[in-house]
Amino acid sequence: MKKAIWVGLMVWSTASLAAPQVLMDAANAYKTGGAQSFVATLLKDSVTLQLANLSATDLQRSFESIETICGSFTGMDVVREVDVAPQSKMVYFSLNYGKCALFSNALFYKSSKGEVLASVAAYTNPYTAWPRFLIEGK
Known about the structure:
This protein is α+β, with helices and mostly antiparallel strands. Helix content is 46%, strand content 32%. Strands 1-2-3-4 form a 4-stranded antiparallel β-sheet.
């Protein structure tokens, strides 16, 4: 058991923090064009919402409701990246607003068109979005 935990931690500690370009582009679009631009950029070439039976409008409304409570989007911090498979990367990041943050995770798939969003989740509670050791440093 100790060996498995150590190997898992070793994988986490060697992850690169070069966020997928689509995530960086989406954060920049959010600053200049708001939630609609963020969602449109993040979902470029992605089938994520189709698979989840959601619409881009639903996702956009979620971010707009956060802005109503927390204020304007101010930026993004990439906290950790993990290559989970040769074609997939999990990214843990925070979306920062004037009064609070959304703690997020997103899985990106390396397609023929580049890295595209495979799934995304955002929560006000970091323990819901991130592994415990990432928050507590244990």
